[in-house]
Amino acid sequence: MSSDHYFSPAPGTVLKTRQITVQLRGQDRLLTTANSVFSPAHIDTGTEVLLKYAPEPPLTGHFLDLGCGWGPIALHLALASPDATIWAVDVNERALDLVRTNAAALGLTNIRAVLAADVPTDVSFRTIWSNPPIRVGKDELHELMQTWLPRLEPKADAWLVIQRNLGSDSLQRWLAAELPSHFDTTREAISKGFRVLQVHRD
């Protein structure tokens, strides 16, 4: 069995793409996924919960999809806000290639699928959406949160979805304790064993 994970930077498995039909923004969309990326057969339940319960994104600005996988969150944001710039960030090069393929298939030109190091350091975000990669481990997850959440613009929000039995409540407590005082973390929705957290920057 391959030791590749969806968070492997360069999967060593032979690429096997597949076409799937998913609902995004109320329409069926034919998209491409592949092996060695997260949830290649469908939009995973956590992401579905996030897309259902997060509010409409702003119309413009820089948005971040942190841990984008093959792109359902980034594609949703790009369709919703065509005048925004969506940064789709992942460590998995195969996933980033799929985001680019899917953006092109939908005629979207406002998605930039890149490694974290390729996001300019002077970019701040009008919103951040993430189904974060919990299975990378607590230390790496906390580092991700500490790296990216402070890059929210003032008066902006991040929306995170985390499975309850994978530590959503403990992550909420950690965010409340570790983020600066001008950040506020609240639980905004509970569905299908997942929690949707809002992180608001004053």
TrEMBL record:
Molecular-function GO terms, alphabetical: S-adenosylmethionine-dependent methyltransferase activity
InterPro entries, per database record: RsmC/RlmG, SAM-dependent_MTases_sf, Small_mtfrase_dom
Keyword annotations: Methyltransferase, Transferase
Every Methyltransferase small domain range: 31-197
Tagged with keyword Amino-acid biosynthesis: no
GO aspect biological process, one term: methylation
CDD domains: AdoMet_MTases (cd02440)
PANTHER family: RIBOSOMAL RNA SMALL SUBUNIT METHYLTRANSFERASE C
UniProt name for this protein: Methyltransferase domain-containing protein
Lineage: Bacteria, Bacillati, Actinomycetota, Actinomycetes, Micrococcales
